[in-house]
Amino acid sequence: MAQSPGPPxxxxxxxxxxxxxxxxxLSESRxxxxxxxxxxxxxxxxxxxxxxxxxxxxxxAFVGASGQLLDRLLAEVELxxxxxxxxxxxxxxxxxxxxxxxxxxxACRPYLEAQLDHMRPDVIVTLGNFATQFVIGRPIGxxxxxxxxxxxRGATVVPTxxxxxxxxxxxxxxxxxxxxxxxxxxxxxAIVDEARRSRSASSTEAEQLGLFS
Length: 213
Ligand code: URA
Hints:
8 strands, globular, six-stranded mixed sheet, Uracil-DNA Glycosylase, subunit E, two-stranded antiparallel sheet, alpha/beta, binds uracil
């Protein structure tokens, strides 16, 4: 957990509730609820769209082709699944991998809110349109949102393309989507390094002042 704690969130209880959730129609077609992947006690959170075929079967976020690409890009900046949290806007697979519908996103909102409250990450990387719109709170395309960072619940948000967009190929403004994601993950890594440095400097200072006993 990165920032100072607010009211405690019983994340295990909320996860248990989510695992049998029937708040929207996606519960009828899912194999299982995909609560998360990675480490929800990290200071970095990646938010995707919704589980796909493999995630629905295996019960873990980002384990299919997009997840493998994400793993590779994380490794390039010396991160891995055990050092970041990975969640989705909706926790159940939309049939045929269609986009999640607005009422499904709303029905699932309390779970992502609880994950955010529990983690209080320093950095949030939003992967694609749905995660970016969830965080920004208005309809904005990722191509427009990308390149800027902004604050949300005490975290710095780095919007980037969804790995599936990189797998489909293509470029924007002369930069391939893959290189764009690579660049943005590098940026997220630099932001989290800085947050860690400043946390460690403040706790050293507090120790020197004898504030911990
Ligand atoms: N795409 C997503 O957005 N999330 C996953 O978990 C897998 C693919």
